[in-house]
Amino acid sequence: MPKQTFFNLPEEKKQILIQSAEKEFSRVPLFQASISNIVKAAGIPRGSFYQYFEGKEDIYFYLLDELAKVRKDKFIAFLQKHDGDLVDAMIAMFECMLNEEDNVNFMKNAFLNMTYKVEHSFLGIYSDKESIDEFGEVSEQIDTNKLNISGEQELYHVMQIITAVTFRNFVEKFAHGLSEDQAMKSYRMEMTLLKKGIYIG
């Protein structure tokens, strides 16, 4: 987490620092990113950076967590729009994320250099049982009557399955340079198969 001195900054200075970090993490993955480039773009001394963050990992995961909060709100809105239909909302969310032009290179670098911690920041809002409040905010919007499940434990595991499919489709899109249409077609097919089930009878 950022240090309190970061939160005490005027909003304009905070945004300049955040945008400078986003630019660097869009250029290269976390392990290749340079604090020197971030502070140069932000127009601050290197020493000032360490007054706000412990290091580049600190600001990186702050950015991921902030993006996750925005995505959680979007996902809840999609659930409401699709009358609690989990699969339809996930398809809409996937398409929305594909079209986030401002974050596409940031996302590409994150997904192609994924660690458990990065995956958790990206997808934990959908299936993180440890974050009970956030999971509850999402799960209460899901119409469980449409799902062949019994209870919250099974809902949690359904979310795990769906997020694993979502994660893999993002990796496929970026690793193979798929167009948005190709990625969308593949994801929609897999989500439809999940929705129908794969066994007859």
Automatic annotation (TrEMBL):
Residue ranges of every copy of the HTH tetR-type domain listed in the record: 11-71
* One Pfam family of this chain: TetR_N
- Keyword field: DNA-binding, Repressor
Instruction: Name a GO molecular-function annotation.
Output: DNA binding
Key word tRNA-binding present in the record?
A: no
Q: Does the keyword DNA-binding apply?
A: yes
Instruction: Give the DNA-binding residues.
Output: 34-53
Source domain of life:
Bacteria
Enumerate the PANTHER family for this protein. ACREF/ENVCD OPERON REPRESSOR-RELATED (PTHR43479), ACREF_ENVCD OPERON REPRESSOR-RELATED (PTHR43479:SF11)
**What is the official name of this protein in its record?**
Regulatory protein, tetR family
